[in-house]
Design brief:
The protein is an alpha/beta fold. It folds into two domains: 1-81 and 155-161 and 179-241, Rossmann fold (3-Layer(aba) Sandwich); 87-153, no CATH class. 36% of the residues lie in helices and 27% in strands. β1 and β2 form a beta hairpin. α3 runs parallel beside α6 (138-150) and α6 packs parallel to α7. The radius of gyration is 17 Å and the shape is globular. It starts with a strand and ends in an 8-residue tail after the last helix. The relative contact order is 0.18. The mean pLDDT is 93. Belongs to the ABC transporter superfamily.
Length: 241
């Protein structure tokens, strides 16, 4: 395994009176795509939000590139080079596509070369550049959400179910863009229920259940072992799209 960019140790997080994470241990290697898998309600989204500081853990440690970031607010964590693509997309519906991407850029106006790469990946964003984000289709909003994370180079991308509810053609477009991001050496931690997409993109996988990581290893090992998939998640990857 390459050196680690992100480490979680004994992470515990509550939401109100509910104890959601029960001691999560997770390692994310630099320059790889790590898939966070598991049944609904296993704690995957809460894990991403805890890393980002949106849901501060009450116990345990989050370490980014050797530096503890536990307890920092989400704005400071973003300044450490971490981007979150949330499940609800997190775009500003009343702002234009241009304004959404400009706000997401860490270093002032978007870099023209990086912007051109985004337009190549998501041509609809060029078409609706001056249009309000709220008028986009669901797939186009997801493209914008991913593009907001990509508009500046980040050390770590946290991506929560980018293919959820999207048509196969839109999923294919997103997959191509994420492959391009991966080819640039990006480090990605991604929650995904589309297991074929997880298999295609993932280098490593971690499976969660009941607020803990119960298995971690190479994505290829998990993808080639239906019995292991069934034992860990109650399903076979090959049976789900």
């Amino acid at each position: 395994m390459s050196d680690l960019l992100l480490k979680l140790r004994d992470l515990h997080t509550d939401i109100g009176q509910y104890h959601i994470l029960h001691g999560v241990d997770l390692e994310v290697p630099r320059g790889q795509v790590t898939m966070l898998l598991g049944r609904n309600g296993a704690g995957k989204t809460t894990t991403l939000r805890s890393i980002m500081g949106i849901l501060p853990p009450h116990r345990g440690a989050v370490t980014l590139d050797g530096r503890a970031v536990t307890g920092l607010n989400s704005a400071l964590i973003a300044r450490q080079g971490v981007a979150l693509v949330p499940e609800d997309m997190g775009i500003f519906a009343n702002l234009t596509v241009e304004e959404n991407l400009t706000l997401a850029s860490l270093d002032g106006p978007p870099d023209p070369k990086r912007l051109e790469r985004i337009f190549t990946a998501f041509p609809a964003l060029r078409t609706f550049w001056k249009g309000r984000a709220g008028t986009l289709s669901g797939g186009q909003k997801q493209m914008l959400s991913v593009a907001r994370a990509m508009i500046s180079e980040r050390r770590l991308y946290l991506i929560d179910e980018p293919s959820k509810g999207l048509a196969p053609a839109i999923v294919s477009t997103l997959a191509k863009a994420l492959r391009e991001l991966k080819s640039e050496g990006a480090t990605i931690l991604m929650v995904e229920q589309n297991f074929r997409l997880a298999k295609a993109l993932g280098d490593r996988a971690a499976v969660m259940d009941n607020g803990r990581v119960i298995w971690s290893g190479a994505m290829a090992d998990l993808a080639s072992a239906p019995d292991l998939q069934s034992r860990l998640m109650g399903l076979s990857l090959e049976d789900h799209t």
